[in-house]
């Protein structure tokens, strides 16, 4: 019963980090972070049949895209079940080398190996207090859920302690991680509009701005950025591509935002105005997450765009949806700006 009470108290104390409503924060870039975790200890049966609890503090330093070095300490008590100050008082100071499967600004599993110096203060035991320890851990770090980049961290850790004849303990930890010196990057595109008075005669108006006046234009509402022929229709004998700027989705979803739906209405009008125009709707992602997941997400998003255009009355034979995942970046995925550019939907003309 006492064992389960200790486990419950450790989990309850650490779970305060989950009390806030989870919300996706802006991407937080950082090189260092601090973690504080509550730990439940399952001791070696040769040490005691009771339980233990501890606090673990970690300072993490990024060494590369996936690699981190984590100096750390822990201090705890392992119960012996005997009254009179006979419990194990245990401390450790060391470092781990940690590998995070995905980048640090997203949800990621991780594994780590490390070791250090341990101290065991045990009554009526003549063994040296100081020794060494080695440990291996598997864990998870959540995505940020506050503007400051606060995340939840949990791991299970095997610890070998050289004290006495050597003991093997299990540590189960849950707590929070806070970035140090974090910065946020937001891309702001500045557009300067210079208004000039222009007199346009009705016979020379060009409503869709494709370079062909309305009186001659046989394909009204042409999508901006595509080359047209002399009668204002998109050239279908050459490969052309245009990025549908502003077509975005809800976080980690294939659901179009309200703004994206508004932007796709002119695209639907352009397709209905030229029934022989066939296009490929190409979905692309950045490299955050696994390659297989990004491939599936890009396909779902391309399908979502196609389905919405069909709802607007576009002929199904005009549309093909293809997801390319992270395979065709147009910018480096090493920066937030590059990753934002790579998350896109393209409108590719299928040449005849």
TrEMBL record:
Its main location: membrane. The keyword Signal applies. CDD domains: OmpA_C-like (cd07185). PROSITE patterns: OMPA_1 (PS01068), OMPA_2 (PS51123). It comes from the Bacteria. Keywords: Cell outer membrane, Membrane, Signal. Residues 1-25 form the signal peptide. This is OmpA-OmpF porin, OOP family. It comes from Marinobacter pelagius. The lineage of its organism: Bacteria, Pseudomonadati, Pseudomonadota, Gammaproteobacteria, Pseudomonadales.
